[in-house]
Amino acid sequence: MVCFACAAPIAVAAQSGSLPTASSEQRAEARDIFKQLIEINSTDTPKGSVTAAAKAMQKRFVDAGFASEDMHLLGPDPNKMNLIVRMRAAAPTSEKPILFLGHLDVVEALPSDWHTDPFQFVEKDGYYYGRGTQDMKESDAALVWTFLRLHREGYKPRRDLILALTADEEGGKFNGPEWLVKNHRDLVDCAFVINLDAGGIELDHGRPVVADVEATEKVYADFVVTALNPGGHSSRPRPDNAIYELTIALNKLQGYSFPFELNGVTRTYFENLGKQESGQTAQDIKGVLATPPDAAAASRLSAEPDFNSNFRTTCVATMLKAGHARNALAQTAEANVNCRIFPGHSPEEIRQELIKVFSDPKLTVKYISEGDVVSETAPDRKAIAPPPPIKEVFDPLTRITQQIWPGIPVTPVMENGASDSIHFAEVGIPSYGYSAIALERDDDRAHGQDERLPVDSYWKSLDFFYAFTKALGSE
């Protein structure tokens, strides 16, 4: 069983037996659900609507015969409605339900940047292309299909199973899980959460290396960095204009690395990963696990973005805005700096660190909340503590993972982005992140251009979640 709190490596023996796989007819339905979700624009833009995606999935449950009292479409905004679907237990029970959590919203995609229409589901060369194929409509579709299949088979779990498809994980003013926990706790109250927006199978040139389960996550924070200047006529350029000052600051940030760190979760992850790697990578992993860590080994591993984000807080400029006229020196220049903060540090601590890095009293660094409220200071909150491992989660998760991807270790990881797990952790509900999606380490296209998912990864996720959901509801 996975030990989130300790640093001991996790050795997992291969499991025997095989899983039932979805039939061609079942795969066709699952593909159709996936296609439908991809082709609904659910961005936080005037063209997007999470509600449209939620209603489309609700109709599938209605058509399958789910009772109306077991479905709820609700939210604080007409475009940001959340869908809650409950599969009832075979008999009344005092056991709390199990909640499967996925967000329906996606990051905006500019069609001019893509080689396919980001809101058209395209199958090409063994991949599915479209915005949300990695983050995270593939898992939404897999769980919708799983609930529909179990319902048609007449499956009755030992306790209620809940599927929550929600809004604004990627940004926006109406985060679904946060709103549901605060306003409709009865609909999402549960023993634990399986968050589909984290974890998964790491592939190295097609070779499964490790199965990641989210144990903790970084803290998300945005800061606006502003340079102000009196400006002037563009025919008389000066080196102290606002754009120049902001550029100097961002160059300093580009060249700065936050300190190397490990915690219990990341140490366990690298101990397990080190057993799967070879050559220089294996030696470097051994080096960073030493006391004290080998700085040269940490530097070499940090060249890989995924490793680097496991080692430290990261901050990067993601948006720029400057100037007011083509023929005038910029009086204002602003950058959004997005930070993913290593557990143990707060947004305010990182804001103060950014001020030191920029070392320019003419710049201001302010915090931006998820509701776009700008503040002089940032929150002091820190990352969620890793939840205790639960046997009823990890026994079937490990067994079924091993049946699909034999021989790979199941290990806790730190989610390097952020997820909706925090909204449940804050009220004492454990959340475990696992998507069952296999991706190449160097093909992470979430939020990026030409987002895609291997077709085979989708089929395997169907087989995993059908078996896993059934096991959770029965064991």
Question: Would you mind describing this structure in some detail?
Answer:
- The protein is of the alpha/beta class.
- It has two domains: 24-217 and 385-474, Zn peptidases (Aminopeptidase); 219-258 and 313-375, Alpha-Beta Plaits (2-Layer Sandwich), CATH 3.30.70.
- 33% of the residues lie in helices and 22% in strands.
- The protein has helices at 24-38, 50-64, 137-152, 176-183, 185-188, 242-254, 264-274, 279-288, 295-302, 305-311, 347-358, 391-404, 421-425, 455-474, and strands spanning 71-74, 82-87, 98-103, 122-124, 127-129, 161-166, 192-195, 200-204, 207-217, 219-228, 232-233, 314-322, 328-329, 332-341, 363-368, 374-375, 410-415, 431-433, 438-440, 452-454.
- Strands 1-2-6-3-7-18 form a six-stranded mixed β-sheet.
Which structural category fits the helices and strands? alpha/beta
What's the total count of β strands?
20
Calculate Rg over CA atoms.
23 Å
Write down the oligomeric state: single chain
Can you say what the CATH homologous superfamily of the largest domain is?
Zn peptidases
Output mean pLDDT: 93
- Counted up, domains total 2
> Between the first and last Cα atoms, what is the distance in angstroms?
16 Å
Overall, the morphology is globular
CATH class of the largest domain: Alpha Beta
Largest sheet: 6 strands, mixed
Strand order of the largest sheet: 1-2-6-3-7-18
CATH topology-level name of the largest domain: Aminopeptidase
- Helix tally equals 14
Strand residue content? 15-25%
Q: What is the annotated CATH architecture of the largest domain?
A: 3-Layer(aba) Sandwich
The stretches of 5 or more residues where confidence is low (pLDDT under 50) are 1-16
Question: Helical proportion?
Answer: 25-40%
